[in-house]
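tool_call: predict_structure(chain=1)
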Amino acid sequence: MTNSSDVKSISLGDLIGPKTVKAQVQVDNWEAAVEGVGQLLVAAGKIKVGYIAAMKRVLKEMGPYAVIAPGIVLLHARPEDGVLEPCLGLMTLKEGVPFGHPENDPVDLVFALGAVDKQAHILSLKALAELLGQAEFLRKLRAAATDRQLAEIFGTTV
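tool_result:
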């Protein structure tokens, strides 16, 4: 068992990279958004394809709680649903789509988090939450026109 003195901080730069981001994607609905960001993580070898279905199932069972702020969804499922290594995917949308949240729809920033254990999950969420609370950071994400620009934001921010 790991005690708190053994816990290392998690850098988002270690979780997200050029293969796990996609800028300015057009999707028709929330299912396509989940599928798209999930496929980025599958193609990068970070999650198994079943993790995508698990993220959709969590949203259907729990409701739109994952829409954590205006325009932002943070998708996830349980580690045993198919996380191969800690990861974060991000897909920005050309036009926001509704996820069913009464105040925070439509969503145009689609994050997918894969953590291997609860402790890593919490540390990853903390690191991401700090950035998502910064208006300038969100503006840069939404303004990125290419995958490269999107990846560079994380390379220079974290």
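agent: Confidence is low (pLDDT under 50) at residues 1-8. Proceeding to next step.
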